[in-house]
C-alpha cells in the first residue's frame, strides 16, 4: 500500500489528508499504521487492517475504549472514523516509549533503555493500577474476553492442552507449566481490566518520560492482569519488574506475595499466544515461530 492508496482510502471514509505528510509504519502484524496531517494541520493515526481477521476484535475494542476514556487520567484513542477498512483517530500527546525497527527486529527507544528513568517506572505502575481498578461490570456485555478468577487455571490448562495437540512442547517446559498450575500460591484470586498487549510501542510518554497514554487495545478484556507486566519483565528483567510492581502497589494496585514469580511463569507461555495467533491468522511464519518457542525450555 502506498501513500496514494492511503489518501484515497481515508477520503472514502470522510477524512481528507495531505498525501505528502503520510508516513507508513509496517511493523504491525495485524495493522499497517499511517501517520498523516489533515488540511487543518491536525495529526491523525490511521490503522489499516492487513486482512479480514485483523478486525476480528475491532467492535469490542471500540466499545471498551469508549468506557475507558470516561474513567482514566491517561489518554486512550478516540476512534472518530471506523469502518471495515480503516480505523482513524487524532494523534494523542506524547511519543511511544519505543518503536519497532522492522529491519533490525528490535526497538528504537525514546530514552536510554540501559538506564530506565525512575519516572517511567513510577508513572507506568500508576497508570496500570488505574486501568486494573476500572469497574468490571461495565465491560460485561460488550463482547471482550471475560475470564473469572476461579477460571484462570482451567483456562490456562485448556490452552496448554490445545497447543500440545498441534505442536511438540519441550518436556521440561511442559513439566514446568504443570508445577505452576498445581501451586495455589502462584495464582491471583482476582481479575481486572487488562490491556493485554502492553509493550513499549503501545505506551506513550512525554518529554519527562512520564506515561501519558496507552494505544492499540486489541486484546482488552477481563482476565489475569499479570499479563500487562510480561513485556516489562522480558525487557528489563527482575529488577525492572520489581520497580514497576512497587510503583503499582504504591498506587493502589492489587498484588499478592508471589505475583512477580507468577509473571515470570506466565512469560513462559508466550509460545502458546503465538500459536493461537498463528491459527487465527493462518500465517506460516507465526507457526514456525510458535514451534521454535514451544520446543525450547
Automatic annotation (TrEMBL):
Keywords: Transferase. One of its GO terms (molecular function) is transferase activity. Residues 21-262 form the Aminoglycoside phosphotransferase domain. Pfam families: APH (PF01636). Gene3D superfamilies: 3.90.1200.10, Phosphorylase Kinase, domain 1 (3.30.200.20). Transmembrane segments: none annotated. The keyword Repeat does not apply. It comes from the Bacteria. The keyword Transferase applies. PANTHER family: AMINOGLYCOSIDE PHOSPHOTRANSFERASE DOMAIN-CONTAINING PROTEIN, AMINOGLYCOSIDE PHOSPHOTRANSFERASE-RELATED-RELATED. This is Phosphotransferase enzyme family protein. It comes from Halalkalibacter krulwichiae. The lineage of its organism: Bacteria, Bacillati, Bacillota, Bacilli, Bacillales.
Amino acid at each position: 500500500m502506498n501513500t496514494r492508496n492511503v489518501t484515497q482510502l481515508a477520503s472514502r471514509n470522510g477524512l481528507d489528508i495531505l498525501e505528502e505528510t503520510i508516513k507508513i509504519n509496517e511493523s504491525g502484524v495485524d495493522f499497517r499504521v499511517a501517520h498523516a496531517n489533515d488540511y487543518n494541520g491536525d495529526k491523525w493515526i490511521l490503522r489499516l487492517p492487513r486482512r479480514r481477521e485483523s478486525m476480528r476484535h475491532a467492535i469490542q475494542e471500540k466499545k471498551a475504549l469508549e468506557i475507558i476514556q470516561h474513567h482514566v487520567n491517561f489518554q486512550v484513542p478516540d476512534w472518530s472514523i471506523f469502518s471495515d477498512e480503516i480505523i482513524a483517530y487524532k494523534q494523542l500527546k506524547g511519543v511511544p516509549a519505543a518503536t519497532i525497527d522492522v529491519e533490525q527486529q528490535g526497538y528504537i527507544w525514546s530514552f536510554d533503555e540501559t538506564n530506565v528513568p525512575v519516572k517511567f517506572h513510577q508513572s507506568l505502575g500508576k497508570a496500570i493500577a488505574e486501568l486494573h481498578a476500572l469497574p468490571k461490570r461495565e465491560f460485561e456485555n460488550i463482547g471482550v474476553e471475560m475470564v473469572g478468577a476461579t477460571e484462570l487455571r482451567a483456562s490456562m490448562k485448556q490452552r496448554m492442552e490445545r497447543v500440545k495437540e498441534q505442536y511438540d512442547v519441550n518436556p521440561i517446559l511442559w513439566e514446568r507449566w504443570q508445577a505452576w498450575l498445581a501451586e495455589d500460591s502462584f495464582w491471583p484470586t482476582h481479575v481486572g481490566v487488562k490491556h493485554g498487549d502492553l509493550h513499549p510501542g503501545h505506551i506513550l510518554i512525554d518529554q519527562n518520560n512520564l506515561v501519558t497514554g496507552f494505544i492499540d487495545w486489541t486484546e482488552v478484556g477481563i482476565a489475569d492482569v499479570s499479563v500487562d507486566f510480561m513485556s516489562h519483565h522480558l525487557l528489563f528483567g527482575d529488577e525492572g519488574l520489581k520497580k514497576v510492581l512497587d510503583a503499582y502497589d504504591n498506587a493502589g494496585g492489587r498484588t499478592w506475595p508471589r505475583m512477580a514469580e507468577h509473571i515470570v511463569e506466565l512469560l513462559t507461555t508466550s509460545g502458546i499466544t503465538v500459536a493461537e495467533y498463528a491459527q487465527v491468522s493462518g500465517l506460516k511464519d507465526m507457526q514456525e515461530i510458535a514451534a521454535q518457542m514451544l520446543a525450547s525450555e
